What we know:
- The protein has helices at residues 5-12, 27-32, 89-92, 106-110, 122-135, 140-153, 156-169, 176-188, 192-205, 210-222, 226-239, 244-264.
- By secondary structure, it is mainly alpha-helical.
- The chain has one domain (36-224): Serine Threonine Protein Phosphatase 5, Tetratricopeptide repeat (Alpha Horseshoe).
Amino acid sequence: MIFxxxxxxCFFAGRKKDYRSLxxxxxxxxxxxxxxxLTTVASTWLAVSAKNIDITEHIDFATPxxxxxxxxxxxxxLPASMHTLDxxxxxxxxxxxxxxxxxxxxxxxxxxxxxxxxxxxxxxxGTRIAxxxxxxxxxxxxxxxxxxxxRVKGQGKKAIDCLRQALHHTPxxxxxxxxxxxxxxxxxxxxxxxxxxxxxxxxxxxxHFVVNHFTLANVYVAMExxxxxxxxxxxxxxxxxxxxxxxxxxxxxxxxxxMKNERHSP
Length: 266
């Protein structure tokens, strides 16, 4: 059962505070927990392997690199279409985003071919993506990989250029891959309404993927919509009961609300 702050106040008014009956920790237990900063953006990434796509069939991780390093650039002037989401503020104004980047995804990028090849440097992976993208700008897979590169580099506009390109060419049932990346960029840039829109689209396309539910929950936390956030974390756990990040964030929200309630109690 989910209780936000006002409901907690009503529930505990005039009676012993029975946190256990709710399945919540007590305030004393919350004090002992390692505090989680709910404002921290937990970057997520939906790997194409989840769609049964072998990335090594699209990017050459084997051939030694001889040429100078390259970066994977997408078409910044791709005309708007019904797929590119240019009606969203964050897409239309991508050149002026306040985006901090997502360096925590660097390891993901460096290990894209990990099942067959050892990790490579950020520059090497970027060059490998750039080489194949240069020859095939219509590949949504390569555009999505390029967007991941720019997310790590902290270049929001270039990342969104690539995601527009990916969305333009992606089949409907694959669109949650670029949409989740776009939701993370908007979340990082504090464009939460845009983030909710695209994360919700991702869930509607692929409701069976844990990361889609988890990403949407994270945005609701940033908006301090804790009831909605917990609902989506709980749906995350229905899909994967042992998913620790969702469990930890539910506990962090519960403790946040309980401690807030304690401070306001007479």
